[in-house]
Amino acid sequence: KAGVTQTPRYLIKTRGQQVTLSCSPISGHRSVSWYQQTPGQGLQFLFEYFSETQRNKGNFPGRFSGRQFSNSRSEMNVSTLELGDSALYLCASSLNGGGSEQYFGPGTRLTVT
Amino acid sequence: QKEVEQDPGPLSVPEGAIVSLNCTYSNSAFQYFMWYRQYSRKGPELLMYTYSSGNKEDGRFTAQVDKSSKYISLFIRDSQPSDSATYLCAMTFGGTGFQKLVFGTGTRLLVSP
């Protein structure tokens, strides 16, 4: 079974621009969650989608948004990029959230200059 | 105080050693406990997944959960240089609906040949 895929793997953007990241979950998984990983803060939860609905959201500003499509693929958008948004963005898929196992993709490394 | 505490290391051991990695947590409501391994510039890989207290073994890896002490451990037997990575503990609550993972900061492990 194919794992979680994320595109693109690397991105370099300029402050003020916006960016869209994509995540394809494991086949059959309906829950996709997004995390930001930085050396200072570690892994922090952004939001989770299940059946095209956002069920849970972390403590990030409204510049961070996402959506999920009917095939469970998910996108994350960051608008008006700031230098502090430079991070590894990871998505994780699970069958239905809850306590079920979450599997991570390879991440998208975003650098904001 | 962070919800999950983990010594960042680095922890350096010779090949063949038994490695002990630990996390403590403050919220007694956590019910699911995980260990992830993350190689440099890669996404976290799920190693062990346990529910509530007890032990779980998988090959060279053993996970222990002591809910009364709010303490979890991962033991690696016969450690190999390929085990050199950052190990992240994570935990989540039970119940229905999505439950975000709460991560430790990760322990960097170095296994020398």
Please report the total strand number of chain A as a whole number: 11
Mean pLDDT of chain A: 94
Biggest interface, residues from each chain: A-B, 26 and 28 residues
What is the CA-based Rg of chain B, rounded?
A: 14 Å
Structural class of chain A: mainly beta
Q: Helical element count of chain B?
A: 0
- Using only CA atoms, what is the Rg of chain A? 13 Å
Based on the structure, what is the oligomeric state of the protein chains?
heterodimer
Helix content of chain A: under 10%
The biggest beta sheet of chain A is recorded as:
7 strands, mixed
Low-confidence stretches of chain A: none
Poorly predicted ranges of chain B = none
> How large is the count of helical segments of chain A?
0
Counting DSSP E segments of at least 2 residues, the number of strands of chain B comes to: 11
| Helix-strand topology string of chain A | EEEEEEEEEEE
Give the distance, in angstroms, between the N- and C-terminal Cα atoms of chain A: 37 Å
Silhouette of chain B: globular
Order of helices and strands of chain B: EEEEEEEEEEE
What proportion of the residues of chain B is helical, as a percent range? under 10%
Summarize the structure.
Chain A has strands spanning 5-7, 10-13, 19-24, 31-38, 42-50, 53-57, 64-68, 74-78, 87-94, 103-104, 108-112.
Give an account of the 3D structure.
The complex is a heterodimer of chains A (113) and B (113). Chain A has 113 residues and is mainly β. The mean pLDDT of chain A is 94. Chain A is globular. Chain A starts with a strand and ends with a strand. Chain B is mainly beta. The mean pLDDT of chain B is 93. Chain B is globular, with a radius of gyration of 14 Å. In chain B, strand 7 and strand 8 form a beta hairpin. In chain B, strands 2, 4, 5, 9, 10 and 11 form a six-stranded mixed sheet that branches. In chain B, strands 1-3-8-7-6 form a five-stranded antiparallel sheet, with no helix packed on it. Chain B contains no helices and eleven strands. Classes of the chains: A mainly beta (113), B mainly beta (113). The interface between A and B is medium-sized, with 26 and 28 residues.
